[in-house]
Amino acid sequence: MKESNGTETNLRWIKVSVSIIALAIIITVLKELKSIFIPLTIAILLAFAFAPLLRFFRRKRATASVGIGITVIIVFFTFTLGGILVYTGLASFASQADKYERQLGATINELSDKFEMPISSVKTYLKNNVNWMDVFNKVPITRFISGTMGTFLNFLFKLLLTIVLMVFFMAGRERLGVRLVKVMTKEETVHSKNIFKNVEEQLISYLFGKSLISLGTALSGMFYLAILRIDFVIMSGLLLFILNFIPNFGSIIASAFPIIICFLQYGFGWQLFAVAGSMIFIQILWGTIIEPRYFGKTMNLSPVVILSALIFWAYIWGVVGMFLAVPLISSISIIIREFPSMRFITALLSDD
Questions:
Q1: Is residue 191 within 8 Å of 338, Cβ to Cβ?
Q2: How many domains does the chain have?
């Protein structure tokens, strides 16, 4: 009897050890081969998101190729237009860097006059001997912008790769039902289709709702920035829209950009406090009040789980992983929920 218990304990520890080793291998593979897995993951998510469009064309008695072709056009032009707007904004910012360099130097000199420094020699040195334009040039902002601009062709390549993979998944899904019927029982087929349906509904609900909320946040921010005559209104709006898809941290980063621009443009004037106040108000309105009421219990994910997923996927895939964190953890949660043996993990993920 004791030998049996000892054997079971050893087997349990072996399973745990193998699971940990397998998880480490999976994480390493995902991280090292992210150039392949990122387009693959995005393609799968897009295939689920645009599945209702394909069914619409099927009801209209159009061929699957017509629906897939229209989907490809929508995805390509949407992502390309977004990429062009972002890179154009970065180029515009880079072209006006000299103006902000001069304004930054003038602001720092003005601050040194307003706040009397205890050591006059330090103040004199900062005002007369430090070339603030040279200091600004040494900050890697310009290198970051030029590096980002240089990746535009890489962006287009990955977009085309994603679209190709998406087409294969969308075309393959049309034949998936037939293959499931051949290899599974009727109950198993229905169960599998329910999983796909739940993942699809969750993704569509999240993407549609998050897009509306991000659009509202961006338009509200652009309205206030235009009234206050802050530079780069469109660029700020794009950042408010795009980065709002990153939970918790995205809205903070997006709001910081117009505040920094306002500081470089007006210094510590009333405009800076007006912009900061308006950004805080907008984020509270859309992110804290409207968004929770819209989603309610739809996502059914614990805030701790969302934060953990954000950190995990940021470590694996960087910024792209931060955008994909919520859709991925939501899809994984739906799949796990369908297996009774994993109820413990489901309980940890849910917000009930």
A1: yes
A2: 1
CA 84 vs CA 87, 92, 96, 141, 166: distances in Å: 5, 12, 18, 20, 22
Instruction: For the beta carbon of residue 132, count every other beta carbon within 10 angstroms.
Output: 18
CB 157 within 8 A of CB 151: no
- Quote the CA–CA distance of 334 and 298 in Å, as a whole number: 12
> What is the pLDDT, as a whole number, of residue 130?
52
Whether pLDDT at 109 is above 90: no
Structure tokens at 330: 């939501």
Question: Cα–Cα distance between 242 and 86 in angstroms, integer?
Answer: 10
pLDDT of residue 52: 83
pTM for this prediction: 0.75
The reply to whether 142 falls in a domain is yes
The tokens for 73 are 């056009």
Task: Report the alpha-carbon distance of residue 66 to residue 335 in Å, rounded.
Answer: 31
Specify the higher pLDDT residue, 248 or 207. Answer: 207
47 contacts 149 by C-beta, under 8 angstroms? no
CA distances from 245 to 10, 90, 206, 215, 285 (A): 45, 20, 10, 11, 16
Cα-based distances in Å from 235 to 142, 221, 262, 264: 17, 11, 13, 16
Q: Which range of residues forms the domain containing residue 62?
A: 37-183
Residue 339 lies in a domain: no
Per-residue CA distances from 138 to 110, 237, 262 (Å): 22, 28, 22
> How confident is the model over 293-338, as pLDDT tens digits?
777 656 667 778 888 888 899 889 888 888 888 888 888 887 777 6
**Which of 11-15, 70-74, 123-127 is the most confident on average?**
70-74
In a domain, 126, yes or no: yes
Q: Where are the alpha helices (DSSP H) in the chain?
A: 2-32, 34-49, 51-59, 64-95, 97-114, 120-128, 132-138, 141-150, 152-183, 186-227, 233-243, 250-266, 270-283, 291-295, 303-337, 343-349
b/e map 287-308, b = 16+ CB within 10 Å: beebbeeebeeebbbbeebbee
Q: What is the pLDDT of residue 176?
A: 63
Residue 314 resides in a domain: no
310 vs 24: CA distance, rounded Å: 18
